[in-house]
Amino acid sequence: MWHFICEHISDVTQTFFSISKRNAVSGGDTHSAFVINDESHRYFVKINPLVNGQRLRYEMDGLQALSASGTMHIPQLICYGLADEGAKQFEYMVLEHLRFQNPQPEAWYELGAQLATLHQTTTAKQSGWHENNFIGQTAQRNTFSNDWARFFAEHRIGNMLEHCARRDLRVANIDVLVTQVHRLLQPHIPQASLLHGDLWQGNVGFCRYGPTIFDPAIYYGDRETDIAMTELFGAFPSPFYQGYNSVWPLAAEYELRKHIYNLYHLLNHALMFGGHYIDSCKSQIAQIRNVH
């Protein structure tokens, strides 16, 4: 498999590449990640068993969409393909290797401003995406809709509750909660912006080219969902929000909606990890009902 990957890299870059060193690095829950290099080139490689589905293809699709916006540096795709190793099939994705740096406050400000520009300028007529994809290990339904409130209630909260129910995790009555979320979001009619979809600090980096984001769960929808997630698992530094608001200020009502939007991610974590995330979901649902 690695010989095949090297040949693919050589063909795409028109420069001969042969691995002289390969190091495994922390990747994801469903795939392996490596840094490979020869005497003069270094690449970041993800490998995923096809029994998990072509998840890297969906990730590639998201990276290419973000890159096409021209609003910030996105890791450059070198190549993507399928390969065999013994009796197993794998997909692989090769990206440029980026050396991350410790960011200064100005870099967080720049990230916020660039994300706001992405949200403001890269848009669609409907919420959704041209195909379903994944958020982490979980299938994400992206059927296009003209109704944002219905899209989020049904394809985000409802779909995630259905995933949970199939694992016998019952945190709320599906029909009741979907109806409540739809009702609460119905007055809000946002622009359908291109979203990263899984924007926490682990999917952000800073390199010589500036801020970068990766590992997207891409779709078009309300920009507030991206911002809400930045607050969920430890908020980004304050310069990030200052930079964002300098380009496209958030509405005051965002402070109410962010709890609805973050319920989606809490449900996903309850599905993947169980434990205290189940209680967090129930507390979040109670908070949404009390506030609204």
From TrEMBL:
It comes from the Bacteria. This is Fructosamine kinase. Keywords: Kinase, Transferase. SUPFAM superfamilies: Protein kinase-like (PK-like) (SSF56112). GO terms for molecular function: kinase activity. Belongs to the fructosamine kinase family.
